[in-house]
Amino acid sequence: MDYKKEKKQNYNLHLVKTDRFKELIVSVRFTKTYDKEEGAYLKLLERLIITGGTKKYKTLKDLSKELENLYRSNIYSRFFATSKNMTFEMRLVMVNPKYTEDFIYEDAFKLFKEILTSPKLKDNKWDDEIFNSEKENLIRSIQNVKESPDAYGRIRFEELFYKGTVYEENNYKNIKLFENLENKKLYEIYKRLFKDYKIDVFVIGDINEEKTKKEVENLLKDFKENNNVSNELYINLKNKNLIESKEKINTTQSNLFVGCTINNLTEEERKYKLILYNTILGTMNNSVLFVNVREKHSLCYHIGSIINRFTDTIVIDSGIDKENYDKTISLIKDSIESMKNPNVIKKLIQNAKKTLEIAYNDFYDNILKIIDYYYLNELSPWPSIEERRKIVEQITVEEICEIANKIEIKSIFLLEGSLNENN
Amino acid sequence: MKTIKYNFDEEIYESTLDNGLKIYLYPTNKTKNFYITVSTHFGSEVMSYKKGDKKYEVTKGSAHFLEHRVMDFTKNKDAMEKINEFGSIVNAYTTYNGTNYNLFGHDNIYENMELLFDRVFKADIKKEDVENERGIILEEYNMYFDDPYFLLHNNLNQNIFQKSFIKYPVLGTKEGIETVTVDELKRLYKDFYVPNNMFIIITGNFNMDEVLSYIKEYTKNMKTKKELPKIIKPKESDEINVEYEEISLDIKEPKIIIGYKTKIPDKKTTIKYKIMINILLSNKFSSTGDAYEELNNKGIKRFDYGVEVVDEYLLIYFKASTDKVEEFIKIIEKYITNLKIDEESLERKKRGKLSSLILSFEDIMQIEDNIATEIFTYNKLINNMNDIIKSITLKEINDTGGTVNLNNKSTLKINPK
Q: Could you tell me the pTM of the whole model?
């Protein structure tokens, strides 16, 4: 796998040449500092840019037929936020033409450009009917989050745990913004993509470099780049004391979330050691949480923990019966405490290192992970897989215990299933 | 060792050992990891079976419960410790057709194989462990029943089918989970976890000859079961069970599912039949189709359709989350009655299918899953999918559209409370 970056006048080109995949992916990412309202518009654009049709392909049906003709190529759009930045992504996925027919390559790029730059508009607006229908549909989808206890529990927990930071934001909470979206304004926001954003293009697959450069240049030649991104992505949480909160929902199962801060992490700890610590705590087969809460006490069906890299935090989540709330919390506390004990870590550290080995190998098998890595590295430099592999191998028991001494539970949230078992 | 050739230079190796155990291998250098799985043709579709003169009823959820006890690392701490030492990831799942035990690893393949094989082939099922497991499985059960989309399918299956296994979820019933005994689980293990009812798949980075010799050595004392249990399936009737049902749930938006049950015209050509029905449906109900467009224009955007083969029957379903339930029903009915396709669209759909075939060898877990699904469902590898797709003629597919039994329909609504 060869990675190469080229700084062009109005965009950054990232080429990843590999014969590992029979797919080719082109991902164009527009990045800017997060703005709630603009983000809401881009969330709607994520749909409209595909479903609204283009000058040449008037309807989604025409567009879909053309994509299918190109051996089921696909075009996706996606809006997401990463710490203080937000991203609008357009992604073209195709089977490498060497397995199908050569003309696919140019035609797919042509179609990609058509979708990105030539939406079907009238008086600088999308068709009102389509706009309103997509807007209504988006609002409905956002409200439907309540039907998924896990997702709903997570956003309610994040509002609590990340209070005062960009991470407390979510679409459900900001539903008013979506209700106020206007067709004319969407066009203005859409145009900003062409002048106010940092632009990165990733092309991955068994690519022909010259041909690719030509197509990408043609795709982006009329865009202007403007670097309005935030480069300081780390955020300090202000949580002083432990906050516990509960909310009732009509399900049988309850969802528990526990937010922990890890204080005064060094750069070295953040980049390498925290990952190993978390693997032992809540991701590997015999993680401390899994063994204590599920295996020894049968208290849950799942339990795990994930790192939020930009806030130096770890979030533990589990599906439990509400009757077991106190017992589960107490076991989670014991588990976290036990990580300070070198004898506990000593038994687990080699396993955790091996578990990470698999994940590092898996990186090369996952085309989207590769793009995401280079993208995040562009915003906030992060060591390569091979660097991480090397350094993680050297981490000692004591170093993990040092992290264990820095962790503190700050928020506990229970989405309490209030149906009794016979319902 | 037999080589099964696929298009685009891909090959899978197949071997049947003397004791009847089947092996499927896909070695590749494109990854550093490997994926080992052991499966048995014993899933939750088995409701009763005969062995000798004796007939056994199977408690609902037993296959899944057994999976939890076979993959037992709580009581086999040494094994788990070793697996963790290697950093491997173990898991298991149960479907209607079978149960699959798997290990994803990157190092020490022979030790890893031994650890996985020891669990599956040498399980020791104990009373106290079965009792402890009930709580965990009930949690899993509750999790599913909190999901309205799971309920849609679950209740539709109950309404569409009279007697079929598919009336019950893979997890079984609450009663089944609470009452299944250790003796029954032991017997099921003894009857169904035998070499000539099982298969091993390994995909990823490994040396094929050495791996095969290892498996032969490991299984050399395992004997063929002379008499495999005979699965007794209740005779399903052509008619549906319940035509219409409404339930209420604490949800935001109404949900609907419509199912059509059709007897498959010729069991021997089920694979091709299913592909053709899929193409016809995609031609109307995917984003290239008129039905999709009409639904979309009406503001019905959260909808989905699918096709499932259940023994001799084909189930086609359409589901949506929408306020406009009546309009949804009207549009589905309008288009399902006319499942025709033209030449240009058929060629386009064939290209789409071809692209999925090209991409089906990208990921070692996906490759294993494709093999396992084919063996569970058809008991053979389907390496001629490309030819099957190419062979579809316009007349043939349009005739197929007419075989869907439109009168055999069941509708289920879930209303917000």
A: 0.90
